Amino acid sequence: MKKFKAVIQGCIGILMLLLIWTVASKTGLFGKLDPDTAEMLFPDPLVVGKRFVEVLTSGYLLTNIWVSMKRVLVGFCIAVIIGLPIGIFMGRSQSFHNYINPIIRFVSPIPGVAWVPLAILWFGLGNNAAIFIIIMGSMSPIITNTYQGMQNVDSKLYQVLDIMEANWHQTIRYCVIPSILPYVMAGFKLGLGFAWRVVIAAEMVGVPRGMGYVLSVGRNTGDTAITLITIITLGIIMILMEVVLFGTLEKRMNKWKMWE
Amino acid sequence: MAIEIKEISKSFPQNEQEEDLSILNNISLHIEDREFVSLVGPSGCGKSTLLRILAGLLKPDSGQILVDGRAITRPESSRCMVFQDYVLFPWMTVSSNIALGLQVRKKDKEYVHKKVQWAIELVGLNGFEKAYPHQLSGGMKQRVSIARALVMNPEILLMDEPFGALDSFTRMKLQDELVRLCGKKEFTTVFITHDCDEAVYLSDRVVVFSGSPAEVKEILPVDLPRPRNRTSPEFIALRNQILKVSVSAAE
Fold first, then answer.
1. CA–CA min distance A175, chain B (Å)
2. Do B104 and A159 touch (CB under 8 A)?
3. In Å, how far are A120, A160, B122 from B111, measured between CA atoms?
4. Number of structural domains, chain A?
5. Looking at beta carbons, which residues of chain B come within 8 Å of A165?
6. Is A46 helix (H, G, I), strand (E, B) or coil?
7. A154 at B interface, C-beta within 8 A
8. Structure confidence at residue A163 (pLDDT)
9. Tell me: the pLDDT tens digits for A223-236?
């Protein structure tokens, strides 16, 4: 019942936003714009909604979502494949940590977008450039969070496995992976967020097709509606990812009371 | 398995300026095959360090420990350890926790299943096979931990204040069960405790350590028939004697 009430209240919040939007649009930002400019720069939700259905049914939107998503997934998976073992080895070996830590400390504050020009120079305007940028943008939170998780593994669990004469991959499987899972999940969440950010930026500056490309075309042709639609779609994708991908995993981890 | 502890010393580095802190100083001790020996002494005196060296988790600075004539160089599944804070895997059920060591040793499925079932019955955890550690009381968790050790058919069981965190009722109950389990004389037990009552109730011999660096102060045999009566005069006399020795050792 409490949950039901929360859902209703959340819906009311969104309806209020739509209402303000409609009023602002119909009055030309409360009289600040003349009606023609207002219609172009600030279309009301109904117009945007109609356009949404249009681009959805024509496949234009879905194709471009798929293009961006593919880039994000490939880049992110590569970042995980590289970053997760690095984070784990950093936790297991102090000297490996000493070698790698300065590089990570140096690279991680660099905004992912800063790699865009270099990526385009190296890989040209295509998928590879986008994937490179995504890897650069999302790898460091994966590494740092994994490493943090490694430092929080109960060292006595290692002792128990040592006494059982477990080899290194059994130790990773039975102890390390389940222990660091909550931290890794947090890293994945951050990394995936970065991945989306940089892919949109890259597509806006030149990598063809994808959501960022739709945004930049919208700007060049003065098509406000499509830019709004893209923004809303991005929001929906992020929520879905959060709920579907991480929600189910976190529920499972809660069962073990890992977070307490 | 008989254990021969020969002139073990161990110190730990402190701050950079100060000298290393000596924890164990020239400890020698003989433990008979299938004997139950308690190590009693002030907290922080190095009993746990000695137990870790026995487990093979720590290396001594000098001296060595022989198990049936063979020197200990690394942890082995024949020397199992039970920790005070249980150290269960929170993401595994009771039966998975108990089965883990056998799985690591790659025993076949049927054997693992049988053995786990046997251990669960032995420690009285029937009905809790599918529970997770956070759903269990302290006493139950320690039962899981003991079962996890017993499925390995240990030759030596090392127990580091296993009942120290439990309330006295649960502690007495688990002491009784330990007497029952060790009564079969299938393994040698080295048991660390603060509790003189517990030491007398369980042990064949009680070794009293003095404080840092630890040295063997006195070794007292407990020649009382089991099950022991905690209120018998002999029991109380012996407990008081150990208490006296350990208090003077702590000073």
1. 8
2. no
3. 60, 21, 16
4. 1
5. 75-77, 104-105
6. helix
7. yes
8. 95
9. 888 898 999 999 99
